[in-house]
Amino acid sequence: MEEVLRPLVVIGGSLIITLFIGWAVDRLLRRTDARHAETPLWGLLRRCRFPLQVTVCSALLRGSYDKTHARVVREHASGIAQLLALVLIAATAWLAMRVSAAVVESSYRRYAASAHDPARVRRVRTQVTLIQRVVTAIVGVVAASAMLLTFPAMRTVGTSMLASAGILGIVAGVAAQSTLGNLFAGLQIAFGDMVRIGDTVVVDGEWGTVEEITLTFLSVRTWDERRITMPVSYFTAKPFENWSRGGTQKTGTVFFHLDHSAPVAAMRVRLGEIVRKSPAWDGRDWSLAVTDTTPSTMVVRALVTARDADDAWNVRCEVREQMIAWLREQHPYALPRITTATIQPPRSAAESEDRLTRFDGDLHKDGTGPRRS
């Protein structure tokens, strides 16, 4: 009877204590969150309830499993201890990742709520995202190393590896040169403020918005909802356009190739009417001027300002569409034309010879040329 009750008491007691601790911690966090609504940390920490319970339960079982005095425990004591140690290490790493993620996200939310500069908010978001990824990677590596070191055979391997650390370091450095380069490039992007999540960029002729930045790659979402994934080292080694750096305001250009008779003054008045009615125009400035000419056309450039790249695109499309429609309806002669001449039908051989004879006779009478023989 005792062989049955002891395992039930040990295991059941561990589960009850685990559930009680999880309930108490969740209740405490809920009350604290209600009292300090301005700080989202306490609400975010409630997500850590399940990994906390797993950690507590594995720790209790790891410390009390031998008190069961069960035959299966006595026969496989080392294996059970090994398994519980691995679960405890993994659960602790999981809990640490959840806690660090809650702290980082809480800090970002408080800053974003009080900041008034969207560019700076995007910069902080990029930094905290990469910091969180670095912390997760470090915790994962430490946990994996600790789990491997619980195996006696791995301790011997670890000693041998430390003895040859110089050679292994050189080999690993050469083999992981690209990976380490991307890692340091990611940190440089995060803290060098080169590109941020939400920035509008042009990379290899593709226009899009930075959607995700990790320690190894960067994802750009294009206007047609494609995703371009590039190594972060690209942005530290090659030039690219960042339309959001230094402010989001943009100046858009629209070029018209028109006939030389186009009414430039009337077009300037019409452009003012179009931009004033456009919700995408920010009200700063607009202009229209002739910037170039060719033998058959002239180039008219319209400038319009906007709050960001999206509005600049929209107002350019509106100006282009409405101006061409206005020219087609009111001034069709201003649109570019191709001038052609009517081709004369071919003459017969006799008619051509008679005309040439008359031409030679006229030249002889005038004394300007010899008479044909």
Summarize the structure.
By secondary structure, the protein is of the alpha+beta class. The chain has helices at 2-35, 41-45, 49-64, 71-75, 77-114, 118-149, 152-163, 165-175, 177-192, 234-237, 264-277, 309-330, 349-366, and strands at 200-203, 206-213, 217-222, 227-231, 241-242, 250-258, 281-293, 298-306. The protein is elongated, with a radius of gyration of 39 Å.
Could you describe the 3D structure shown?
It is a single chain. With 373 residues, the protein is α+β, with helices and mostly antiparallel strands. The chain has 13 helices and eight strands. Strands 4-3-2-1-5 form a five-stranded antiparallel beta sheet. A three-stranded antiparallel beta sheet has the order 6-8-7, covered by helices on one side. Strand 1 and strand 2 form a beta hairpin. The relative contact order is 0.06. The model is unreliable at 170-177 and 368-373 (pLDDT under 50).
**Helix-strand pattern:** HHHHHHHHHEEEEHEEHEEHH
Q: How many angstroms does the end-to-end distance come to?
A: 145 Å
What is the helix tally?
13
Quaternary organisation of the protein chains = single chain
Strand content: 15-25%
| Major beta sheet summary | 5 strands, antiparallel
Alpha-beta classification:
alpha+beta
Average pLDDT, all residues: 77
